[in-house]
Amino acid sequence: MPKRLASINGFQAASKCNTIGSLKIIYGRKIMKPVLNYSFTAVALSIALSACNLAPKYEKPNVELPSDTFKYDAQRNGEQAFQAASLGWQDYFADPRLHALIEIALKNNTDLRTANLNVEQVRAQYAITRSSQFPSLGANGGASRSRGDVESYNAGLGISAFELDLWGRVRNSSQAALQQYFSTAASRDATHLSLIASVAKAYFNEQYATAAMALSEKTLASYQKTYDLAKVRHKAGVISALDLRSQEAMIENAKASYAAAVRAREQARNALELLISQKIPDDLPAPLALSKQFKIRNLPAGLPSDLLLNRPDIIAAEHTLKAANANIGVARAAFFPTISLTSTLGFGSSQLSNLFNSSNKTWSYGGNLSLPIFDWGQRRNQLKVSKIEQEKAVVAYEAAVEGAFRDVADALVARAAMNTQYDSNLAQQKAYNERLRLTTLRYKHGVSSALDLLDAQRSSYSADTTVLSTQLSLLENLADLYKALGGGLKRYSSDDATTQREIKAAKTAVQTSKQATAQ
């Protein structure tokens, strides 16, 4: 079969096939010399015919991004520049308590466990599909007695209905299953990444609520002291009842803020326990203060946009596209005839004691040809469906890349703005706290009015709350950026590492098979 250009129902595919002179199917029985090699003829023929492939050549979609790098303003403050995407989550997040919670989540989380099971399922499905590329060897034996005390015994090995992969149908089916396996594994990695970010954000919210509770308690105690002093001054006629009632309102406001912080903390703990699928253990390391969580404050002024190609959702989308590409080859091969072979080698005798004598060797060899003629457009429409699936996969890949670029760009822009905002909030907090200190002294000595003190207290509390809120926003942005950059996947649990080794081994096996075919 020389090189040719096949045109079938509107599609063209370059078919490079090995030259074969003829194929003769021979039936026989009772041979006189060893013929073990006949049982493996199908294997040799499969290798000889495996050069045909009707799948289109895979071309990675070229997605145009706005620029080659993400650029934003960032103050380095002498810190070493690095790429967040190259760090494991243990290095990315600073809090050892958070580390422990993430470890628990990676072991217990139901979504991640389901994703792991999906990988196992698709891995097994790939193994089933791949096995179709090789002959299935079976053993059989039997004994019978018929009228007249005629006995018959037989035993043998055989290959049943092994399809010669002339057009790459079986091989492309196996390739599609392999790419689907890779895609599922990458989707599991995306779940892994998203879980880490979700645990981090839930933890930061819990710590923020705890800090807000502490601030409310501290503020309430300060308001109570001021109120006690105001009552004394009110009895002495120094301040009016209006000033006293204003102090009481401040106390009630602090109590309400404390209750809101308690509610927020309990809700955050519930969310965290849902993510780790258990109660938060009592023996975890002590948490770091919010202000000490910023292990990574500043990033390089420019990050290459090709970092996005490391995101597991983009990797999954590309493998899905490759699977759809291989399925086109499967659909095209359906237009061509299929040939399957059956071969047996064994012994047959009328006496059990002489069954395995060399003179009783038997063999048989057969083939089956299936040629499609008319199916009311079924194969043509199946090919159309496969092409549409491939086009949809291209669109999904482009959408994944564009969405990833937007995620990173938004996170970096937000981080740059929040860094500036945080520095201003810290300066404002320092100024308002100093103002409160001075106003309190002046109030105690009768220089400042109760109204001045109330205003200073409100401003100081508002500044403290704003700093906490900005710290939470920065930490949530830190988790969002970790997820957006697709980083931190270098450190897996043992099961994840095993899967990666198996994927690498599978890829090596595929490459070796291709090289053997080319030779």
Average pLDDT reading: 76
Major sheet attributes? 4 strands, antiparallel
CATH architecture: Up-down Bundle
Sheet with the most strands: spatial strand order: 4-5-7-8
The CATH superfamily is known as: Outer membrane efflux proteins (OEP)
Radius of gyration: 37 Å
CATH topology: Outer membrane efflux proteins (OEP)
Order of helical and strand elements = EEHEHHHEEHHEHEEHHH
Global geometry: elongated
Helix content: 55-70%
Give me the number of helical elements. 10
Alpha-carbon distance between the two ends:
18 Å
Helix-and-strand structural type:
alpha+beta
- Number of self-contained structural domains: 1
Strand residue content: 5-15%
DSSP strand count = 8
Stretches where pLDDT falls below 50 for ≥5 residues?
A: 1-49, 72-85, 488-499
> Which CATH class?
Mainly Alpha
Structure in words:
The protein is α+β, with helices and mostly antiparallel strands and about 525 residues long. It has one domain (about 55-490): Outer membrane efflux proteins (OEP), CATH 1.20.1600. It has ten helices and eight strands. The chain has helices spanning about 40-50, 90, 95-110, 110-130, 170-235, 240-275, 310-335, 380-445, 450-485, 495-519, and strands at about 5-10, 10-15, 70, 135-145, 150-165, 300-305, 340-350, 360-370. The strands form three sheets. Strands 4-5-7-8 form a four-stranded antiparallel β-sheet, with helices on one face. It has a two-stranded antiparallel sheet with strand order 1-2. Strands 3-6 form a two-stranded antiparallel sheet. Strand 1 (about 5-10) and strand 2 form a beta hairpin. Helix 5 packs antiparallel against helix 6, helix 7 packs antiparallel against helix 8 and helix 8 runs antiparallel to helix 9. The longest helix has about 70 residues, at about 170-235. The two termini are about 20 Å apart. Residues about 1-50, about 70-85 and about 490-500 have low confidence and may be disordered.
